[in-house]
Amino acid sequence: MNNQDEFAIRLRQALNDGAERLDYRTVLRLEQARSAALARQRRTGPATVRLPALQLAPAGASPMGEGRSGWGWLRGAGLVAPLLALAVGFVAISQWQEQLEIERLAALDFAVLLDDGPLEAYADRGFGVLLQAERRSDR
Amino acid sequence: MATREELSEFLAGVERRAFKQAVFAVRDESHALDIVQDAMMKIAENYGDRPAAELPLLFTRILQNTIHDFFRRSKVRSTWVTLFSSLTSADDPDADPLETLEASSDTRTESTETSYQREQVVAIIEEEVARLPARQREAFLLRYWEDLDTAETAAAMGCSEGSVKTHCSRATHALAKALRERGVTL
Predict the structure, then answer these.
(1) Which of A20, A54, B59, B166 has the most C-beta neighbours closer than 10 Å?
(2) Which of A18, A37, A40 sits opposite B122 (nearest CB)?
(3) Which of A5, A16, A21 sits opposite B108 (nearest CB)?
(4) What structural domains and CATH numbers belong to chain B?
């Protein structure tokens, strides 16, 4: 290090000393300027994408970012469970209706085999119902 | 990309030196504060997404450019004032361009004789730095206060490395001579 550099370093210490002795108004103005600048900081990072509440997230992702916390699957389950229950309900109702139809046809077949009515009557749906009602009353 | 915290920390670390540099250049604390604020705004708005490592050199260039812009605007303004205004009085020959700086120093109170003397020495050094020719002062402060190397200083000033060395050498010798004449030893 030559004399010029050594002298400059001593001067730098004095200049730093001077910079540390600013009056409080100046320091306050500088802080305000810094805050104003930070409020306008340019950001070009990845934008936050918010999915609609009912939109399913892509595989491995979570709409609200809970995937990292391990609780994201709860939100997914909350969306899927009602749909699953609705599907199960539809299947049950369909099965029940099908069973009723089978029973009705079976009653008609039984009546035809006993041959206790005109054949046209057995083609009438209302007659089948009447037969069922009579059978229940017989029991 | 620099986070808000990184940018805040960087600005907090350089704002006082930046203010002093601006004061040395424009010799007015109010204008110097405006210049520093402009420079902070520019780096936040235009370069806030740059890596934190790039901020020091960017801010140095922005600050120097903002100071130069101030002088350009002042030159234009003074030209118009000279042409169209006969109401403005001539500059006060007794006015001291460093009056503000000295006044702010005088308002400080120190409890010990040593710190008072130290403050006086610092004030004298600041006066002499402010009296340097603009390019010498700019080169000296960037090279030795901002700790830029010769190439970075040359890039910030838009000149050759040889010019930077010449400016720094002349500034250092001028300061040494002036301080010796005022009885200041470092």
Answers:
(1) B59
(2) A18
(3) A21
(4) 1-84 (1.10.1740), 96-186 (1.10.10.10)
